[in-house]
Specification:
alpha+beta, three-stranded antiparallel sheet, 5 helices, 5 strands, about 15% strand
Length: about 140
Protein backbone atom coordinates (compact mmCIF):
# COMPACT_ATOMS: atom_id res chain seq x y z
CA UNK A 1 0.00 0.00 0.00
CA UNK A 2 1.20 3.47 -0.75
CA UNK A 3 0.82 6.49 1.48
CA UNK A 4 -2.01 7.79 -0.69
CA UNK A 5 -3.98 4.56 -0.19
CA UNK A 6 -3.59 4.74 3.59
CA UNK A 7 -4.75 8.33 3.98
CA UNK A 8 -8.47 7.63 3.62
CA UNK A 9 -8.55 4.72 6.09
CA UNK A 10 -10.06 5.07 9.57
CA UNK A 11 -8.56 3.61 12.70
CA UNK A 12 -10.67 2.00 15.40
CA UNK A 13 -10.06 4.69 18.00
CA UNK A 14 -11.78 7.52 16.13
CA UNK A 15 -8.54 9.13 15.00
CA UNK A 16 -8.63 9.09 11.21
CA UNK A 17 -6.31 10.08 8.41
CA UNK A 18 -7.32 13.08 6.36
CA UNK A 19 -8.36 12.37 2.79
CA UNK A 20 -5.46 14.24 1.24
CA UNK A 21 -4.02 11.51 -0.98
CA UNK A 22 -5.56 12.95 -4.14
CA UNK A 23 -5.66 16.59 -3.12
CA UNK A 24 -2.26 17.18 -1.53
CA UNK A 25 0.36 14.40 -1.74
CA UNK A 26 2.97 16.55 0.03
CA UNK A 27 0.73 16.64 3.12
CA UNK A 28 0.56 12.83 3.09
CA UNK A 29 4.35 12.61 2.94
CA UNK A 30 4.66 15.13 5.78
CA UNK A 31 2.28 13.10 7.95
CA UNK A 32 4.40 9.99 7.38
CA UNK A 33 7.75 11.67 8.08
CA UNK A 34 9.33 11.23 11.54
CA UNK A 35 8.15 13.53 14.33
CA UNK A 36 10.63 15.81 16.08
CA UNK A 37 10.87 15.61 19.89
CA UNK A 38 7.72 17.12 21.38
CA UNK A 39 5.77 16.66 18.16
CA UNK A 40 2.28 15.14 18.12
CA UNK A 41 -0.57 14.29 15.82
CA UNK A 42 -3.71 15.94 17.19
CA UNK A 43 -7.35 16.68 16.38
CA UNK A 44 -9.32 19.67 17.63
CA UNK A 45 -12.96 20.03 18.71
CA UNK A 46 -15.47 22.34 17.02
CA UNK A 47 -19.04 23.22 18.00
CA UNK A 48 -21.82 24.79 15.89
CA UNK A 49 -25.31 25.63 17.15
CA UNK A 50 -28.62 27.02 15.97
CA UNK A 51 -31.44 27.28 18.54
CA UNK A 52 -32.16 23.64 19.45
CA UNK A 53 -29.57 22.03 17.16
CA UNK A 54 -25.97 21.64 18.36
CA UNK A 55 -23.30 19.82 16.38
CA UNK A 56 -19.97 18.87 17.89
CA UNK A 57 -17.21 17.43 15.77
CA UNK A 58 -13.50 16.96 15.37
CA UNK A 59 -11.12 18.30 12.77
CA UNK A 60 -8.78 16.30 10.56
CA UNK A 61 -5.46 15.13 12.02
CA UNK A 62 -2.90 17.92 12.37
CA UNK A 63 0.83 17.30 12.69
CA UNK A 64 2.17 19.72 15.28
CA UNK A 65 5.78 20.13 16.27
CA UNK A 66 5.46 22.09 19.54
CA UNK A 67 2.97 23.11 22.21
CA UNK A 68 2.93 26.65 20.75
CA UNK A 69 1.77 25.35 17.40
CA UNK A 70 -0.96 23.29 19.11
CA UNK A 71 -2.06 26.35 21.11
CA UNK A 72 -2.21 28.60 18.04
CA UNK A 73 -4.07 26.05 15.92
CA UNK A 74 -6.45 25.25 18.78
CA UNK A 75 -7.09 28.95 19.39
CA UNK A 76 -8.48 29.37 15.89
CA UNK A 77 -10.91 26.48 16.36
CA UNK A 78 -11.81 27.81 19.82
CA UNK A 79 -12.64 31.21 18.36
CA UNK A 80 -14.80 29.59 15.69
CA UNK A 81 -16.60 27.55 18.34
CA UNK A 82 -17.04 30.63 20.52
CA UNK A 83 -18.68 32.52 17.64
CA UNK A 84 -20.83 29.69 16.26
CA UNK A 85 -21.32 27.35 19.23
CA UNK A 86 -23.22 28.85 22.18
CA UNK A 87 -26.48 29.55 20.34
CA UNK A 88 -28.11 26.17 21.01
CA UNK A 89 -30.02 25.68 24.24
CA UNK A 90 -28.76 23.95 26.46
CA UNK A 91 -26.09 21.87 24.69
CA UNK A 92 -24.58 24.76 22.74
CA UNK A 93 -23.07 26.32 25.85
CA UNK A 94 -21.85 22.98 27.18
CA UNK A 95 -20.37 21.90 23.83
CA UNK A 96 -18.69 25.27 23.32
CA UNK A 97 -17.03 25.23 26.73
CA UNK A 98 -15.88 21.64 26.13
CA UNK A 99 -14.47 22.48 22.67
CA UNK A 100 -12.59 25.52 23.99
CA UNK A 101 -11.14 23.49 26.89
CA UNK A 102 -9.96 20.66 24.62
CA UNK A 103 -8.47 23.05 22.06
CA UNK A 104 -6.61 25.23 24.56
CA UNK A 105 -5.15 22.19 26.32
CA UNK A 106 -3.53 20.90 23.13
CA UNK A 107 -6.29 19.00 21.34
CA UNK A 108 -6.93 15.26 21.26
CA UNK A 109 -3.67 13.36 20.96
CA UNK A 110 -3.75 10.78 18.11
CA UNK A 111 0.00 10.18 17.91
CA UNK A 112 -0.07 6.51 18.95
CA UNK A 113 -2.82 5.63 16.47
CA UNK A 114 -1.14 7.43 13.56
CA UNK A 115 2.27 5.90 14.29
CA UNK A 116 0.72 2.44 14.66
CA UNK A 117 -1.06 2.86 11.33
CA UNK A 118 2.05 4.03 9.51
CA UNK A 119 4.30 1.34 10.99
CA UNK A 120 1.88 -1.51 10.27
CA UNK A 121 1.37 -0.22 6.74
CA UNK A 122 5.10 0.12 6.17
CA UNK A 123 5.60 -3.46 7.40
CA UNK A 124 2.88 -4.85 5.16
CA UNK A 125 4.08 -2.81 2.16
CA UNK A 126 7.65 -4.02 2.58
CA UNK A 127 6.65 -7.69 2.84
CA UNK A 128 4.19 -7.63 -0.07
CA UNK A 129 5.94 -7.94 -3.42
CA UNK A 130 2.88 -8.46 -5.58
CA UNK A 131 3.82 -12.09 -6.24
CA UNK A 132 2.05 -15.09 -4.74
CA UNK A 133 4.00 -16.87 -2.01
CA UNK A 134 6.32 -19.62 -3.18
CA UNK A 135 5.35 -23.20 -2.44
CA UNK A 136 6.82 -24.58 0.76
CA UNK A 137 9.35 -27.23 -0.26
CA UNK A 138 10.64 -28.00 3.20
CA UNK A 139 9.76 -31.44 4.56
CA UNK A 140 9.28 -32.24 8.20
Amino acid sequence: MTTQQIIGQNTTSGCEWPDSGTKNPQRAEKLCSPLPPGGRYVRFEVCWSLLVLTIRGQTRVYRTESWRQRLLTGSGFSLMSLLLGPWGIPWGLIGTVWAIWVNLTGGIDCTAEVLATTSSTADSASTFSGQPPAANTASF
